[in-house]
Design goal:
By secondary structure, the protein is mostly helical. It has helices at 2-24, 26-33, 37-41, 45-60, 63-75. The longest helix is centred in the N-terminal third of the chain and has 23 residues, at 2-24. Helix 1 (2-24) packs across helix 4.
Length: 96
């Protein structure tokens, strides 16, 4: 079951990576990375997606994630911060 979940997530991440690369453009991406266009065209997007998915579990428990969360909390205006409610996990439903 976990393999199936990974496969679905890998496809989603691969699709997202391809879409972002297309929207940015291969030449622009290559310039930003300091690479030749040919290197970008040879990137194995699927392997990148697999790596991101498998390392995602590491990121969830990462010190870097916690530091990033604290940095965002520090710079967000007080009115934009979401209240933290301990012990409750209710879902909000909005009807239009």
């Amino acid at each position: 079951m976990e393999l199936a979940n990974h496969s679905k997530k890998v496809r989603e991440v691969e699709t997202e990576l391809r879409a972002r690369l297309v929207s940015m453009g291969q030449t622009n991406f290559a310039k930003m990375a300091g690479w030749a266009d040919s290197k970008v065209s040879r990137l194995n997007i699927h392997d990148m997606a697999v790596t991101f998915v498998l390392l995602g579990k590491v990121w969830e428990t990462s010190l870097i994630r916690e530091v990033a969360r604290q940095a965002i909390a520090a710079v967000m205006p007080e009115s934009k911060k979401r209240p933290v409610v301990a012990g409750r996990s209710e879902q909000l439903t909005i009807d239009f």
